[in-house]
Amino acid sequence: MGNANSACVDGIERRGRVYYMRIRVPKRYAEVEPRREINRSLKTCDQTEARARFAVAIKALKADWEARLAREEDGSTTNAFSGAISLLEAWDMRYVPMQELVHGSITDLVTRIEKVVNSGVQSALVPAALGVLDYPKIKVSEMPAIVEELKAADIASKNANQLREWRNKYINAAKVFSEVCMDKPVCDITEADAMRFCKYWKARRDGGEVTTNHVNKRIRFMGQIVDAYYWKFDIPKSHRKNPFIGQAIEKIAFDDRTNDGKKLALPVVWVSRLVRGEMLEGLNDEARDITIIAADSGTRQSEIYNLPESDIHLDHPIPHILLQTVRDGEQKRQIKNTASFRPVVLLGASLEAMRRHPRGFPRYRGKGSYSGAVNKYFRENNYFPNPPEGLLLPGGLEAKFSIGSTRHTFEDRMRFAKLTNEERAYLMGHSIGKVRGRPVYGSTPDLRLRALYQEMVSFPTDTWEPRPIEALRKEIDRLAKESGFRV
After folding, report:
1. Taking every annotated instance into account, which residue ranges of this chain make up the domain DUF6538 (predicted)?
2. What is the pLDDT of residue 395?
3. If phi over 0 gives left and psi between -120 and 50 gives alpha, with beta otherwise, what is residue 476?
4. Beta strand extents in 332-386 (DSSP E only)
5. d(CA 325, CA 162)
6. Residues 124 and 148 in one domain
């Protein structure tokens, strides 16, 4: 009785005491699987173990068929390689190039050979398990889309304009590489190609077209493209060779374009006029008030025009905005870095301006048109002040102002108000760890403290006057004592 055969149920049948897999080959795989039916011993007399072995076997079979199908249908090696890697995972193996297999563990090699023998000579497992797959021939021009795919989680919070700017880094790097070295498969890029690419950019730097910083960013973007290729296809680290590593060019003495991160601070008197609304008559209401809020509060203009409505808190006892990443919805946006996540207290002119736009700035939100339009307006109307006489940037370049210079003026305003470097970093959204030069411990300033810091540098309006700095310092001490601190 115990040796009788049983009917096939869910692909498993018993013959005598042993369980077998018995399934029909799906029509989808008829092109790559000559057998109409799979009959295979599960090599067990235990029904529970048979079910477990069946699940593993069916997964491996389907992975094998998919890999074969990809190899047949896809003229390139991309899908075939990915299918083969998935097949190896189904067999609990990873891809190891043949050269490493030969010099590696004998046990591992024997195990792979046994699995290959059991799978059949037509199986896609044969080249995958024995390490003789061809790497996918993905061209450089195809890689920006793959970089985006791999970075999906990192860029999920970017709005349309932020995403466009992010994409263009890799699109432009790939485009220039293709023009300089040809659009070739990433796996075929040589060190000579990387050097040619770097020399092209170095020549442009030496000719004064671009900065050293600009060049090294382009080299870094190409290095990231190569790394993304390796990650996409799970290529072993021993077979990863990124020829762009170590190719950064050095700054040259008296580089007239190197100091591109250094912006001039606008005169504080000029900024105070701006905050009062002077020189803004020709701008639309949104551009005008974005300019006022950013100039008064020391924020980046993009932090203001990208504000989602949900981060504007005008009814709070201490009116403020929250600068933070918003991951979902039409008003999502990504903040520059973690240090930039902060509340910004609104006082005086910035509070009045924000009250005129309680829902934010839809005309500019998620777009990149504000800076260009506002800088053009100020330059065409000759509103920017002349730089101090005799002031030249390194290399003799003419010093120029931009609307973004108001943030640099804010640094000066804080410095002359005698805010500590750490207090300034909190308001600016800069890294406290870098300021301290050590790990960050302790709490961050609450809204009450931030409001006092902000008031120290705020401009008066017709309806509001900031208190003297000495009085504000006394209030800070009072709050500290109230919380139990010694001052």
Report:
1. 12-67
2. 44
3. alpha
4. 342-345
5. 12
6. no
CA–chain centroid gap for 286, Å, is 29
Place of tokens 């040589």: 190
Same-domain pairing of 106 and 79: yes
Q: Which pTM does this prediction carry?
A: 0.69
Please give the Cα distance from 308 to 331 (Å, whole number): 5
Q: Are 66 and 73 in contact (CB under 8 A)?
A: no
Q: What is the DSSP code string of 142-188?
A: GHHHHHHHHTHHHHTT--HHHHHHHHHHHHHHHHHHHHHH-S-BGGG
**Residue 215 and residue 163 in contact, taking contact as beta carbons nearer than 8 Å:** no
Which two three-digit tokens encode residue 360?
């934010």
Q: What is the mean pLDDT of residues 149-154?
A: 92
Supply the range of the domain harboring residue 101: 12-129
Q: Is residue 248 part of a domain?
A: no
Burial letters for 244-282: b for 16+ Cβ neighbours within 10 Å, e otherwise?
beebeeeeeeebebbbeeebbbbbeebbbbbbbbebbee
Please give the mean pLDDT across all residues of the chain. 86
Q: Are residues 320 and 428 in the same domain?
A: yes
Tracing tokens 């249908």 back to the chain, one arrives at: 73
Mark residue 111 as left, alpha or beta (left: phi above 0; alpha: psi -120 to 50; beta: remaining): alpha
Concatenate the DSSP letters of all residues of 52-93 into one string: HHHHHHHHHHHHHHHHHHHHHH-SSSHHHHHHHHHHHHHTT-
Distance CA(297)–CA(344), nearest Å, equals: 7
Backbone angles phi, psi at 43, to 5 degrees: 55, 45
Condensed to tens digits (0 to 9), the pLDDT of residues 49-83 reads 888 888 877 877 787 777 777 666 654 556 667 66
Q: At what angle do helices 212-232 and 191-206 cross, to 10 degrees?
A: 160
> Are 463 and 365 in a shared domain?
yes
Q: Which residue has the tokens 């109230």?
A: 482
Number of separate domains in the chain: 3
